[in-house]
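Forgive a beginner's question, but would it be possible to get any protein sequence you like and the tokens describing how it folds?
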Amino acid sequence: MIFDIMTLFPDLVNYVLGESIIGRAQKSGAIEVATYNIRDYSEDKHHRVDDTPYGGGKGMLMMAPPIDRCYHAICQRRKEEHSRKRVIFMSPSGKLLDQKKAEELAGYDHLVILCGHYEGVDRRIIDEIVDEEISIGDYVLTGGEIPACILVDCVARLVDGVLSDPECYENESISSGLLEYPQYTRPYEFHGVKVPDVLISGHHENINKWRREKAMELTVRNRPDILEKFGKEESH
């Protein structure tokens, strides 16, 4: 799967996505992440990419032409290499990113992600090239780079070859419709608290039952909204 990211800060994106599991997935060839500096596509001698918004207001707005040239450079590079492509703009105005959306996006061969900055992006380029706007939460950040990294991380880990086994994500927190159950490792006793007896019993049926019960307890206590949403989806 290919992730092409249009940004003003490619070093930030490359640093975050070059580490850990996502970094190793790139090295193994399971995914490809490429960044494009939008400034490189400005025809201004100072590589300017922003201007004041029509109608007034504070701050600067990213101009459409450099983004347009950047996007078409990506299209020219990829050509018809991948038939299932989707262009995403990271925006607080977008639909909220959740696990269901990540699973949907993992079905594409190619994601092109636009990172906004300043006061946003000229609406005309969004209307022209963007398929979908996505938000990571109801708050405003200084730019779209961190949200883009989050999107790549949660989608990429669903791609074959990124994690060692599908079970790594199929039964974990959120994916199953519940928060993940408590987990323990050595030592057996820590600060006077012992590992629950059921987990060392060797009785897999009882272990699975305990995990399900604990997952339900945590979800009811911490995120009842997830339980309500999961229940509605199950009934359809």
